[in-house]
Structures are given as structure tokens and as C-alpha cells.
Amino acid sequence: MKMNKKLKQIAKNIRISIIKSITEAKSGHPGGSLSIVDILTVLYFEKMNIDPIKFNDEDRDRFVLSKGHSAPALYATLAERGYFEKKDLMSLRKFASKLQGHPDMKKVAGVDMSTGSLGQGLSAANGMALAGKLDNKSYKVYTILGDGEIQEGQIWEAAMTASHYKLDNLIAFVDLNGLQIDGSNEEVMNVSPVDDKFKSFGWNVILINGHCFDEIGNAIDEAKKVTGKPTVIIAKTVKGKGVSFMENNVAWHGTAPNAEQAEQALKDLEGGL
User: Fold this and answer.
1) How many C-beta atoms lie closer than 10 Å to residue 165's C-beta?
2) Exposed/middle/buried for 24, CB within 10 Å: 0-12, 13-18, 19+?
3) Where would I find the beta strands (DSSP E) of the chain?
4) What pLDDT, in 10s, does the model give residues 30-40?
5) Domain extents for the chain?
6) Taking 70 as the threshold, does the pLDDT of residue 130 lie above it?
7) How far is residue 47's CA from residue 43's CA, in Å, rounded to a whole number?
8) Which DSSP string corresponds to 105-126?
């Protein structure tokens, strides 16, 4: 219970940072950033073997944000974890800032892979996981995929590859919030049933509520015990989670709030919606 209270506060801090940084930038992707915060919170503050001081340690766990446009969530998490100062978040998307619109591994401490071109992150995570196998390393590789992103064919080539090479050190999350830039997944290109698709590709599949810390943590623990196949954790989430007028509203996929909207968003988050 104490851990959940701590994680809840951390997640709230991260969501507040997301709103502030995107508002300051006047551009960005709040909806899909807010939906993955609870997953990132559990990973970075409870489950991953990482150290902000030794962020390039060869034995560290790796993380790939395949849906790279949700970079504000990753940046806010890294800052909260101590990889860089939180004040740097206000430079998001500004000229010469290290915090670009998509993560850059050459500029930002704690970013393990530059991403942004949708569909490619799982392949990169495969490479890291396979390298770990070949080097007899014990680290885990985590990645978060967007549900709209899994419409990309390369995702399924990578899914087939991960299964073929028995990458049981790979744990993928699907941020199943049901919305993408042009509308609902069902309208644009139906991806359901996601669980059966991954099962048919030879993956271990776990279904969870992506906003329940206990379910997220338990799923990761379960995935770590699996041998001989990769695991995908399909997390049912709410786009824009925590901000009343953004929740389940596709208009907030890639729109920055103005000052008045940001003020309301921060009130929602402080109130614990």
C-alpha cells in the first residue's frame, strides 16, 4: 500500500511535468504521453535495473520507447528519476534543446534508442535482447508500442523474429488506448484481437489494466519468469489519462494546451482525477 502511494505521487509528478513542458513548447503529444505514465513509473521506480549515475552500464536493463512521439512522458520520467534536472523539461522542442520532439540517444542520458519512425522500436529492442543472449548478459529489454503503431508491418516481422530467437529477455507493452491521430483504431485499421495476434506469433501474452500499479508490477514479475519466448503485456489504457477534457479525446493526440487549458489540466492532476 505504501509503495502504491509513492508510485501514485511519482506518476502525478510526471503527468504534471508532461503538461507543463508541452504547454511551454506549444507543441507535442499529450494524449499518448499521459496514457503510458503508470507503466513508466513502475518500470523506472520499481522494476528496472538502472542507475542514473551509471546510465551506460553494460549490465543495465534497456528501454525502447517505440512510440517515440510520446517522448514528453519518457523525458519527464527520466527527470523525475534523476537523469537530468527537471528544469530542463521546459526546453522541450525548443531550438538547440537536447529534448527533441522524439528521443535522441546521443543527446539525452537514459535514452537507450532514438525513435520516432513508427514500427521500428520493436526491431531495435530485438537487437538489444539478442545481443544480451549472445553476450550471456542477464539484463532485460523493455519496450512500449502504440496500438496504432502495431498497424505497421515491421512490428509483425519483429514479433516473428523475437519468437524465432526465443527472446525471453524481451518484454513489450502495448499501450492499448484505442485512439490514434486520425480516430479510433477500429475506424482507421482494426488491430483487434491484439492478444490472439501475438499468441499466434509465439508470444506469451498478459492482459492488464495499464493504470493499476499492482497489475503492471505483477505482469512484469510474471514475464521475468517465462522462458523460451518473449512476453507482451497488453495494457488497457485511457488516452489523456488524468486530465478530464483530454481523456478518450482523439483531438489531444498531438495538440498542446493553451495557458487556460493547462491551468485546468493541472487542477485535474493535483486533484487526483
Assistant:
1) 14
2) middle
3) 62-65, 141-146, 170-176, 179-180, 183-184, 204-209, 231-236
4) 999 999 999 99
5) 2-271
6) yes
7) 5
8) TTTSTT--S---STT-HHHHHH
